[in-house]
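Q: A reviewer asked whether we had any structural model of the full assembly, not just the individual parts. We don't, so I'm hoping you can provide one. Inputs are below.
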Amino acid sequence: MSTTATAIGVSSKRGIWGGGNEPLKASYGKLMMWFFLLSDIFTFAAFLITYAAIRVSYPAYSGTMDAFQGSNEYWPIPELVFDAFPFFHGVHMPLVFVGLMTFILIMSSVTMVLAVEAGHRNDRNDVVKWMLWTLLGGITFLSCQAWEWSHFIHGSDNGAVLTYVNTLNQVVTETIYGANLVVNEYGPAAFAQLFFFITGFHGFHVTIGVVLLFLAFYQAAVGVYERRGHYEMIEKIGLYWHFVDLVWVFVFTFFYLI
Amino acid sequence: MAAQENKTSLEVIPRDNAKIMKIWKTAGILLAITAVEFLMAFTMDRGLLLYFLFIVLTIWKAKYIMMEFMHLGEEAKPLFYSIIVPLIFLVWLVIALMREGTDIFMLRW
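A: Here is a predicted structure for the entire assembly that you could use as a starting point for your response.
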């Protein structure tokens, strides 16, 4: 069998189209992962650039930080919206929680590279160890995001008095607590909509990532990759996981910092 | 062929500490840049300069993640360029949508 394959490979008539060579010196799976990630970059870029476009179409909040009050007349300052931390109710801790989430995700990316590096060395114990850390990081990040969403949806103690068009097409003025897709106490309706769609789509990617990480962790632990002879699956899932981290770096800057 | 499939253990190559140190160093750089961004968010006035610095630092972090963690720099050059070059289209999208947003702002307020 191997002799026929070689015969086709070296046939001068068929050249490189005879098969048996690796385009771009990468395996099929890795190549396809890269092109999938490229298309995903465009999806996330469309989300974030839309955020920028909608944001510049609203006036920025111009008053002092202390006097900030949520209104659908102007775009809020993110550090005044995202200032809560679990178990510290009512304490103003701007961006601390989201900073912690960033730290967790970057660290899980680091343990992922360490798992990939261990995979290159065929070191099953190290792969299993680092995959477990990465998995824990991913689950912790998702739990943090669940808290963040829950807090965003339920809102602050005082809420904000807003005039808006409700779902029955009536103009109403009332105190709003928290956020939904129609109205929110922080800023224009688009602010909460973009928050839900951008962090939600990212969170969905993290969820898929956690499932893949668990699969790879399990298969590495029971020796599937060892029998297969290589740990390339760890590398492919690693690419996806780093991408999730990469997107978060941009979400962090454009949604929380700017 | 059958013998290979039944093989249950691969030869483990020992750790290369220099390589592992480099990974932790990259992690340190990423966390340091994030810390600097935090510091800037609370010490500098909001404005175009701050936003510009945030974007530069973010792209710098993205470069580290893609080159060091995803090993894009070690891939074949055509693969590297087929990932990086299409991102040029995003420049157009940024210009077009920022212009659009500004025009909506002028109409609305």
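A: Points you may want to mention in the reply: The mean pLDDT of chain B is 89. The radius of gyration of chain B is 22 Å.
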